[in-house]
Specification:
The complex is a heterodimer of chains A (182) and B (514).
Chain A lengths: L1 H17 L4 H19 L3 E2 L12 E6 L2 H11 L3 E2 L2 E7 L11 E4 L7 H8 L5 E4 L11 E6 L2 E7 H6 L3 E2 L1 H6 L2 E3 L3
Parallel strand pairs in A: 2-4, 2-5, 5-6, 6-7, 8-10
Antiparallel strand pairs in A: 1-9, 3-4, 7-8
Helix pairs in contact in A: 1-2, 2-3
Chain B lengths: L1 H4 L4 H56 L3 H9 L7 E8 L4 E6 L14 E5 L2 E10 L2 E11 L2 H51 L13 H97 L6 H31 L6 E4 H15 L6 E4 L4 E4 L1 H18 L7 E9 L2 E8 L31 H11 L4 E6 L3 E6 L8 H10 L1
Parallel strand pairs in B: 7-9
Antiparallel strand pairs in B: 1-2, 1-5, 3-4, 4-5, 6-8, 9-10, 10-12, 11-12
Helix pairs in contact in B: 2-3, 2-4, 4-5, 5-6, 6-9, 7-8, 8-9
The chains are: A alpha/beta (182), B alpha+beta (514).
Amino acid sequence: MSLRLCALVVSLAAVAPVSALAQVDRAAAETQIKAAFLYKFSGFVEWPPKAFTRPESPFTIGVIGADELAAELEQIVKGRTVLERAVVVRRMRRGESVAGIQMLFIGQAEGARLAEILAVAKGQSVLTVTESEDALAHGSMINFVFVDDKVRFDVALPQAERGALKISARLLAVARKVLTSS
Amino acid sequence: MRRLIAPLSVRQKLLAVVLVTTLTALLVAIAVMVGFDLRTYRQSLISDMTTQADLLGRTTAPALTFDDPRVAQENLELLHYRPQIRAAAIYNARGKIFASYSGTDGREFPKLPEADGTRIEGNELVLFKRIVDSREILGTVYLRADYELYDRLVGYLGIAAIVAAIAMLVAYVLSRQLQHIVTSPLLAIAGVAREVTEKRTFSLRAPKLSKDEIGMLAESFNTMLAEIERATRDLQASNEVLGREIAEHNRAEQEILRLNTELEQRVKERTAQLEYTNGELEAFCYSVSHDLRAPLRAIDGFSQALLEDFPKDVPEEARRYLSRIRSSTQRMGQLIEDLLNLSRVSRGGLERRDADISELARQVVTELQTREPQRKVDISVWDGMRANADSRLLRAALENLIGNAWKFSSKTDQPRIEIGSLSDDGRAVFYVRDNGAGFDMAYANKLFGAFQRLHSGNEYQGTGIGLATVQRIVHRHGGRIWADAKPGKGAAFYFTLESDGVEKAGRDMAEAQA
């Protein structure tokens, strides 16, 4: 199972730069990669116990403004666990509470409302992931970027620290940029 | 090994033993240590490289997860701080090279990763290790490192050679210094033993330099020497005595030889004298006897003529005197005849031929019976008695012996004469036996001498020359004669006609002296 996923991620990563021919294919591939990365982040981040309402609460990934990614993510997490918890993908809307959510992805589609959404999650133990320029400035913790036909990401540590999240140095090692205290 | 060591001296043997033992112990120790070290080296290298691979896997796991070869590459580049690692590579989950590092050589990497494990390829250690994160296989680490087993081994051998050389040198010097503790008592004993063997001076003693087995050996050796010394002294003493005895014995033997020679010489001289005298005597006797017969015959003849020619003129008294003169002359003639016979028997040749003794004896018996037909004597002569002898002489002997038997049995009631033979040790012994007067054996030694008479002339007629003649005849044949008798119970005369060797010498002498 995990092998298959791994193979998928790697194959997508390898295929991604070559598939520039078809814009649609490329966008789909990018979505797939990001969904996989999202799931992978869970392995490099440490949540405080209070992030979960109950011991048996599932690990919940909230997705806003990225239905395709949410669908992809649902495929990936099916039957998988994070921190020995079941994984649940929740499609959310603006203004919705982030309670019980450990990871929140805000798609590019939200655009200008990004800051507003991030403000809700601010100070919470929710790992916020975005895919917009200057998202880190608005309080996002991890932001996807596209470099040399490859999906990479930047990390902002102060925001994570404010949410009592510990991001593994190993993850930081592969980040394109790491923002420390501003 | 043994053959190699055998001709060495004890000193050299000890040295050799010490050196061989030292070398063996050293080699075993070095071999064990090197073996252990190389094993440890191999294990620690493998464990080190496995750890390194784990570390690399863990470090590059995020890079693999988030598909960032650059980061992985950077991680690998850090390996240049470990020049022992020649090359490394990270394969992704699909088996493609994700990042690689080759420090010193430009060799290619395996196209595909292999299963977890380590192996030695010549002087390199090759290792593959899966990268697993959150139970997902992310890829594989490949490491190639120097495996310096052979270099180490060569290095160790060099050290071993140096250590062995030093150790052997030290052992050599030490054992040279210390071995005299063991060898000097031994050498002292050996020196004494050699001196004793060469100079045969058993008074030497080995010094006892130690209280161990060698000391005991020295003591035993000394005891042995003392024993030998004593035995040698005894032997020499007894040798001297023996030598003296032998010298004396030799001198005595020489003396005996000299005396013997002298004696022989004297015997020879005497024998020659005697033979000469005997010869002369015999010649004299013969001529005298011969010459005496003529006057005797004349006396007898003229006495007879007187009696026959003047039967009337001679008075009875004179006639009686004449008769006595005649009988005396006849007796004297008989005596002369016998003497001539004895003389003849001694002279003349000996003609040995196959002689029939039985026949000769019968002739003699017949003659006797013809001469005195009135006597009744029971005479038995055995058949088939033969001998290689001179029959003329033998007949003379038989005439005497049988005649004696005839004569001396004349006064016996039932006279009996037996002529026979018996076998003594394969030699024939003949005998003539009668049951007549016999004689006392005390006079047996006088029996065969001439003119020896055991009975008076009145009792039995005879000249006393007969048995001397018989003995002469028997002796001329090389035989022997002896008698066995008892007064009144008869006599037996035994004789042989062949030499029986043993008694010849004595008889010769006896004959010469007779």
